[in-house]
Write a structure and sequence with these properties.
By secondary structure, the chain is an alpha/beta fold. 30% of the residues lie in helices and 24% in strands. The strands form 6 sheets. It has a 4-stranded mixed sheet with strand order 2-15-17-16, with helices on one face.
Length: 439
């Protein structure tokens, strides 16, 4: 029985999978569209003047929460899942609904982006999510929106959802937002700012984490016709009122998803080509994950729209992953097979993601046999005798996708709750199967 068929059966019956091992990964893969770009493009298109056509749209839990939220707010859209295309009639900044209760699952981009967009509207709105979402902070965004003349607050009093909005629109002016928890607060503010009644000035307090995601936001905004003055990622000026313009827009493959296949080549000594991504011109900072693999000893070849990794003997590295923090778990999986320790620094903010991606990652790596020094803002991973283990995924798609790779070399690695990958990549295990030589 092919592994893919067996895998699907095990998901249905026991909600766990056992990975095949000692198989080399080889071939060409095109991951689905970027979740981060998809949800940013949806936000801008929803507020645009005219009808936007999106191509390469990701179909996953996170993007479905965003699409469902927009539909509940009265927007007209048609999503063809087979062709990954979506048409959406923009509102010219006038959201139709005056009252709505929105459920956003555990999608951080959805709840944060929609909170900011609804602050530009007139009406009363509530946004909520799963239990973990009620532990993920949003108070800094609410405070910044209040500085711009609206009313946003957290119902449970701990700066986390549910979020309540009573708004007659954004007045504009100046606002400050902390940058050390999530760059999504700033991205949400920037995308909503053109619909204020007066120009908006945003100041970032402290360190801004995950800066490439803010650069992505600015580029998507510009593609929809609104340019923002950016002063060294510390201050931003947005001329308002303004309006996004509808257009045809192509969403590139997800660079974070690509990291798993590139890492699989590194771990097994194979060769994998990711199609549709450019190392030099991608909107996504996570494309630079291939630089980490290069430092570890892999050979990287890039073309205009392709990146190829040739696996090799691996060495441990010391790396600041603040700008590409969604790939921390992927690098941790590779680090288990390196000659020497790997130190990952400046990633304290990932404790506030779908799970504590430092603390819980350390727990699972130790189960697999590694020695792990957990720090406030990172990890030091020292390879040791690796062993089989049941890996908890904590309802975190990236935990499942990254630590599954360990099973390509270590027999008996079991991934619990593999369906959590549906958050951003429902077909992940099938696509990984397609690259396994000898199955």
């Amino acid at each position: 029985m092919a592994w893919c068929t067996k895998l699907l059966s095990e998901q249905t019956v026991t909600n766990r999978i056992t990975l095949p091992h000692n198989l080399q990964v080889s071939g060409t893969i095109r991951p689905p569209g970027s979740k981060s770009i998809t949800n940013r493009a949806l936000a801008c298109a929803a507020m645009a003047d005219g009808t936007t056509s999106l191509r390469g749209v990701l179909d996953s839990e996170d993007t479905r929460w965003m699409i469902e939220g927009l539909q509940r707010l009265g927007l007209e859209l048609h999503f063809n899942r087979a062709s990954h295309t979506l048409e959406i009639s923009g509102t010219s900044g006038k959201i139709p609904s005056r009252q709505a209760e929105l459920f956003t699952g555990n999608s951080g981009t959805t709840i944060r982006f929609l909170t900011a967009l609804l602050a530009t509207a007139t009406g009363q709105f509530q946004l909520d999510g799963v239990t973990r979402m009620r532990q993920r902070p949003i108070g800094d965004l609410a405070n910044a929106l209040n500085q711009l003349g609206t009313r946003v607050w957290c119902n449970n009093g701990n700066d986390c959802p549910p979020v309540q909005i009573e708004s007659t629109g954004l007045s504009g002016g100046s606002a400050s937002v902390r940058g050390n928890i999530s760059s999504q607060f700033l991205s949400a503010l920037l995308m909503a700012a053109p619909y204020a009644q007066n120009p908006v000035h945003v100041h970032v307090e402290g360190e801004l984490v995950s800066q490439p995601y803010v650069s992505m936001t600015l580029q998507v905004m510009e593609a929809f016709g609104v340019k923002t003055m950016n002063h060294a990622m510390r201050r931003f000026e947005i001329q308002a009122p303004a309006c996004y313009q509808a257009r045809e827009y192509e969403i590139e493959p997800d660079a974070t998803a690509a990291s798993y296949f590139l890492a699989a080549a590194a771990i097994t000594g194979g060769v994998v080509t990711v199609d549709g991504l450019s190392r030099d011109h991608s909107l996504q900072g996570d494309v630079q994950f291939c630089g980490c693999l290069e430092q570890m000893g892999c050979q990287v070849t890039s073309a205009e729209n392709q990146i190829t990794i040739q696996g090799s003997d691996l060495r441990g590295i010391d790396v600041d992953m603040n700008g590409i923090s969604d790939t921390v778990q992927t690098l941790a999986a590779v680090a288990l097979f390196a000659n020497g320790p790997t130190s990952i620094r400046n990633i304290g903010h990932i404790r506030h993601k779908e799970t504590d991606r430092i603390g819980n990652l350390a727990i699972e790596l130790r189960k697999l046999g590694a020695r792990v020094d957990e720090r406030d803002d990172g990890l030091r991973i020292t390879p040791d005798r690796l062993q089989s283990a049941e890996v908890q995924t904590y309802d975190d798609h990236r935990m499942a996708m990254s630590l599954a790779l360990v099973g390509l070399r270590v027999p008996g690695v079991v991934i619990l709750d593999p369906e959590c990958t549906a958050k951003t990549y429902p077909d992940y295990f099938q696509d990984l199967q397609s690259l396994l030589r000898g199955t």
